[in-house]
């Protein structure tokens, strides 16, 4: 089918970011958003959606509630529409499963008429509007919003290996082979690595003969989910971060990694308890090594095995390990989509990062009426919260306000506990110097 109609806004990618944008734009007549998704569904990290996987954010951090809690696209309304609100509140009083949020996203995508199985091939500009060529023809758009998500990261030493015995954690449920009697190497020290480790030890696909877990340079670090660290996911902190000089942003971002790259204390306890049970309470025959603070520096394939080079970051020594299967829980990285190649020379980029404004608008040399926005690819300029689900609704509302050139959604009302003084220099201690916007005099906050 050839598409020659012109839409106000074309959102490329049907993940949570652009679902949020379309949901918040739905009641606004002046912002018409069409969403295209290359896959046949909007499944959210399907390779990690095993039973029992939990959402790390509050259910209130859905597509819309933090901006418009009365929206029909809220998670609470999803539960109500499916007749399970009360049962959910009883069964999930302290957490929400990722599987249920995946169902919620699929429901929202259906209501929003997301165009599935339509891959974007190229984006160009004809002088008046964007010309977006897809596998179903051509679309015209006044503005575009890129929400293609981050790409699975594969270490350089493994990029040339194409084997069914090696896979990224994002493919674990789809690609995971029976591990019974195998020597399995798991690489990575984040939440996904922890979830894969627990799955490999569960016996779901058999039990390994030997399990080696290489956790990366920082070892097994618990996720920092404390209240004051969670202030980094407050819109007020994003605005503060955005105004810092680039060199200060980079240093601060590095110190905030503990809020996104660790493993929850609960999951660490589950893994430790499972290893204890296998060692002392069962006849598993499993041997295991948890190499906290080791890195994978080399990987080669033989006809029957892999040979891995493992660097001990404490002693600086390297050892070899033979294994049958390798799972890379090595995270994700932002990417510049190949379909943007026709416009690549018209917008400044640094490495794999767009140059963006405070409203997530990508700088380019085209007409002001034709705008490019980016979702989930501006951590370098907007802080650690940009790669998480927690601020998806707020970010979408910022983009909508920018498209309208006026404030449709009120975004300045919410407060923050940590005081932010934009006139104060950034210190050299463990965190930023955050002083002064609230003075405390006589025990009374001003």
UniProtKB/TrEMBL annotation:
GO MF annotations in UniProt: monooxygenase activity
Gene3D superfamilies reported in the protein's UniProt record: FAD/NAD(P)-binding domain (3.50.50.60)
Pathway assignment: Siderophore biosynthesis
Record has Oxidoreductase as a keyword: yes
EC number(s) on file: 1.14.13.59
Necessary cofactors: FAD
Pfam families recorded: Lys_Orn_oxgnase
UniProt KW keywords: FAD, Flavoprotein, Monooxygenase, NADP, Oxidoreductase
Keyword NADP assigned: yes
InterPro entries per UniProt: FAD/NAD-bd_sf (IPR036188), Lys/Orn_oxygenase (IPR025700)
Protein name as it appears in the record: L-lysine N6-monooxygenase MbtG
Biological source species: Streptomyces luomodiensis
């Amino acid at each position: 089918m050839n598409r020659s109609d012109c839409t106000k806004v074309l959102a490329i990618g049907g993940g949570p970011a652009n679902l949020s944008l379309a949901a918040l734009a739905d009641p606004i007549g002046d912002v018409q958003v069409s969403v295209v998704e290359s896959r046949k569904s909007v499944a959210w990290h399907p390779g990690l959606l095993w039973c029992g996987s939990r959402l790390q954010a509050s259910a209130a951090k859905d597509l819309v509630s933090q901006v418009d809690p009365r929206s029909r696209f809220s998670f609470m309304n999803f539960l109500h529409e499916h007749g399970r609100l009360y049962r959910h509140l009883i069964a999930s009083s302290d957490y929400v499963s990722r599987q249920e949020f995946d169902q919620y996203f699929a429901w929202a995508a259906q209501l929003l008429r997301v165009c599935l199985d339509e891959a974007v091939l190229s984006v160009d500009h004809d002088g008046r509007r964007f010309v977006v060529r897809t596998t179903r023809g051509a679309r015209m758009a006044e503005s575009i919003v890129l929400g293609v998500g981050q790409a699975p990261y594969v270490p350089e030493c493994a990029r040339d290996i194409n084997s069914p015995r090696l896979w990224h954690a994002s493919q674990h449920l789809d690609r995971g082979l029976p591990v019974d009697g195998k020597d399995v190497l798991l690489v990575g020290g984040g939440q996904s690595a922890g979830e894969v480790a627990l799955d490999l030890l569960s016996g779901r696909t058999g039990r390994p003969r030997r399990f080696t877990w290489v956790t990366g340079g920082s070892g097994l670090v618990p996720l920092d989910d404390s209240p004051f660290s969670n202030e980094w996911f407050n819109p007020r902190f994003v605005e503060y971060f955005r105004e810092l000089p680039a060199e200060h942003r980079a240093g601060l971002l590095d110190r905030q990694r503990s809020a996104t790259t660790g493993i929850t204390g609960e999951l660490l306890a589950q893994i430790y308890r499972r290893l204890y049970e296998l060692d002392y309470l069962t006849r598993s025959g499993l041997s295991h090594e948890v190499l906290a603070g080791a890195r994978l520096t080399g990987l080669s394939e033989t006809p029957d095995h892999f040979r891995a080079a493992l660097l001990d970051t404490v002693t600086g020594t390297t050892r070899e390990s033979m294994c049958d299967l390798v799972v890379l829980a090595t995270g994700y990285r932002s990417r510049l989509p190949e379909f943007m190649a026709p416009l690549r020379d018209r917008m400044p980029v640094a490495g794999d990062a767009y140059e963006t404004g405070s409203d997530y608008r990508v700088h380019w040399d085209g007409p002001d009426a034709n705008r490019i926005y980016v979702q989930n690819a501006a951590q370098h300029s907007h802080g650690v919260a940009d790669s998480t689900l927690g601020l998806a609704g707020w970010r979408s509302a910022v983009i909508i306000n920018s498209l309208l050139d006026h404030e449709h959604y009120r975004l300045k009302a919410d407060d923050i506990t940590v005081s932010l003084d934009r006139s104060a220099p950034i210190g050299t201690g463990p965190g930023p110097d955050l002083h002064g916007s609230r003075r405390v005099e006589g025990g009374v906050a001003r």
